Amino acid sequence: MSTWNEIKIILNEEDLEYIQGILYSMDVRGVSIEDPRDLLDREKGPLTWDFADINIFEYGKDKAVVRAYFNIDVDVKEVIHEIRERIESAKEFGVIIEDFEIFSEEVHESDWANEWKKYYKPTRVGRKFVIKPLWEDYEPQGDEIILNMDPGMAFGTGTHETTRLCLEAIEDHMRSDTRVFDIGTGSGILAIGARMLGASEVVGVDLDVVAVDSARENVGYNHLDHVEILHGNLMDVVEGTADIIVANIIAEVILVLIDDVKKKINVDGVFIASGIIREKEKMVSDALHEKGFSIVEVRREGEWVCIVSEVSHA
Ligand SMILES: C[S@@+](CC[C@H](N)C(=O)[O-])C[C@H]1O[C@@H](n2cnc3c(N)ncnc32)[C@H](O)[C@@H]1O
């Protein structure tokens, strides 16, 4: 049984998205979120970012709890220090996060790794998709497309805003004979979705071997061909060019990716970039303009943004 370092942050619910953005950019292996708004707004339970937990309201109705799991060999003090520094430097962007507490403890995998499954239910995304946990039964209705998913420890249940925004953008920009690169594929959800929407060939890449294994398994669960999942850094391992390049990674990584996207995107292709919190939308769109892209559309949900761009012809 694996042992993990759990960092627990108790904070005001309005600060949740920003903290997610911070954790998202660290070497976190899994995140559990208890957001009181989920229970109050929807009856279906605390189904939020990736892994959900059950002790909702433990710290009061306005308090959210984030549990982030790091490998056992990380220096916990360093991790907490970095989180505190990032919260401090958020003030430069006018983001004031106050009244939070951070705790840490060692936990065993069985305590948390499967808990989220209780709240992971078939979820409708975009016009056609129903993301179906592998272990759930669901009868498709009308023209629904069933996407079977067991994300395990990888990001990409289909419930996070950024995943949904990307999937919807892929749905709208899919043409015939479309080749797709999914950079930061996680559970493989976008790569799989793209192929189901008619992409002729899809290559998904992730730096994390856990994600690579999960994505390959999910491709298998959906019985798909022409979807290749590669282990590697960003676009280093992809060959050739694509018509859609999608990357749901954090804003800072999107910036690094832009030059490679420009080299590997076909004429009239689109770059779908998400994982961007609203505060960083301008930073990313400015960088895209600077590198010769024009913005086709910006999709927003909650605190999250998905920017669709293309290389300017002018
Ligand atoms: C937010 S998740 C997105 C997962 C999935 N595509 C989705 O939309 O739900 C970001 C993924 O990017 C991967 N990633 C982060 N940095 C990367 C890099 N430099 N190269 C490749 N993958 C990376 C992470 O391991 C993670 O699986």
TrEMBL record:
Q: What is the species listed in this Swiss-Prot or TrEMBL entry?
A: Proteiniclasticum aestuarii
Protein name listed in UniProt: Ribosomal protein L11 methyltransferase
Catalysis: reaction(s): L-lysyl-[protein] + 3 S-adenosyl-L-methionine = N(6),N(6),N(6)-trimethyl-L-lysyl-[protein] + 3 S-adenosyl-L-homocysteine + 3 H(+)
- GO MF terms, alphabetically ordered: protein methyltransferase activity
Q: Tell me the domain of life.
A: Bacteria
Binding of S-adenosyl-L-methionine occurs at: T163, G184, D206, N248
Q: Name one GO biological process term.
A: methylation
- Where does the record place it? Cytoplasm
